[in-house]
Amino acid sequence: MPIEFVQEISRHGMSPPDHIEPGKWVRFPGAGKKSGNTAGAAYLFPDLRAGVFCDFSNGDEHHIWKAEMESSLSDADIMAGNILIDAKRKEVEKQRAEFQKEKALEARKYCNSLKPATDHPYLENKGVKSHNLLIDGDKLIMPLFSCDGSISTYQEIHPDGRKKLMYGGRKKGASFFIPAVEQKDNDTVFLCEGYSTGAAVYEAIGKRVVIAIDAGNLKPVAEDLLDTGYSKIVIAADNDWHQKEQWEKTGKGKDPGEGTGIEKAKAVCERYPSITWLAPDRIDEIDGNPCSGTDWNDFFRVRGAESVRKKLLGEKPKLFSFSDTNVNKNLTCLPEQRKYLVDCYGRGFLPEGIVGEICAAGGSGKSIFAMQFAHMMAGGERGFYPFSVSGKPKKVLYISLEDDQPELDRRLWAVTEFGANKPPGLHALSLVGQDITLMETDEKNNAVRTPVFDMLDESISGEGLDCLIIDPFSRAFTGLNENDNGHGTAIVKACEFLSQKHKCAVLLVHHANKQSQNNNMSITQGMGRGASAVVDGCRFMLGMCGFSDSDLERFSINYADRYKYVKAELPKANYSGKFAEMYFELCHIPETDTVVMKHMDISGGLIDQIINYILLYITEEGPETRRNLTRIKGGYGSFVKEKLGEEVTISAMKTALKSGIESGLFIEGKVPKKSGKGGAVKKISLTKKGQDKVFFIPEFMAVNNV
Question: What is the pTM of this model?
Answer without folding.
Answer: 0.51
